[in-house]
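Catalogue entry: protein

Sequence with per-residue C-alpha cells
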Amino acid sequence: MMLRLGTIFASALFVFANSAVVYAEEATPSVATVPNGPVLAPPELRHLPEENVLPSVSSDKPLYTVQVLAVRSAKISAPMAGRLTSLPLRDGDSFHKGDLLVGFDCLLAKSQQAHAKAEVQKYRALVETQNNLRQLQSWSVSDYRTTKADLAAAEADLGVAQATLLNCTVNAPFDGKVSELPVHQDQFVTVGNPLISIVDSSELEISFLIPARLLASHPIGTHFHVTIDETGKKYDAVLSRISGAADPVSRTIRVYGIISSAHDDLFPGMTGDANF
C-alpha cells in the first residue's frame, strides 16, 4: 500500500515539473539570430514612433537668442507726493534734453519757500541787531549765539523748501522717446510711484547668453551676425562688453554687442538670433 502511494506521488511531481518547463518556454520571446550578423531587437521594440528617436546633431553653427536694448533708458519715479498737473507727452512722443516730462501741483511748496525766505530775513535782521549791540558793549553772549543758530536753522529750512520746489518738475535727462506712461493728469501719486519710462533709440546694443567656455575664442571685438525676427533682416555686429560674472548653474555668461551701423527700423525690445 505504501509502495503504491509513493509511486502515485512521484508521477504527480513529474507531470508538474514538465508543465512548468513548457510554460517557461512559451513565456520567453524568441529572438532570431543570424550567424555573423546583427542581433535583431525584440518585436515590441521594432516599431517605435519617429518622434522618440533622438535628432541628429546639426553641423550648422549654434544660434543664440538676442534682445535689442537701448544704451540709455530710464524709469522715472515720483520724487515727491502730490497731484500731477502737467503731462505734455504721450507714449511714443519724442522729446529733447531738458524738456518737461511731468509737472506737479506746487502751491504748497511755493508757500513753504516763501515762509522760509521770510524766516531767513527775520533772523538776519536779528543778527545784525546783535552785532550793533556788541559794538556798543551792550549785548548778551547767549542771545547772540541763539540768534546765529536760529539764522542757520532758517537757512536750512529755505534749502529744503527750494529742493522741494525743484522736484515739482521732472525734466528729460537726454533726447529720446516715451516708452511707457502709467499715470494720468490730475492723478495723486506718492513718493516712488512710477511716472514715465523713456528710451534713447539712437544708440542700441544687443544682449545674449553664450557658453562661458567660448570666451577664450570670442574676445571683445569679435564680429558676428544678428538676424532680427521683427524686421527679417541680418545685421553686422561687434562684441563690445562681457558681464563681470558667469552663471555657475547654466555655465553661461551674458555678453553685449553693438550693431555696426545705424538702422531706423530697430527698436528696443526686439529679439532675434546671433551666430558667430
Observations:
- The chain has two domains: 64-72+198-275, 76-189.
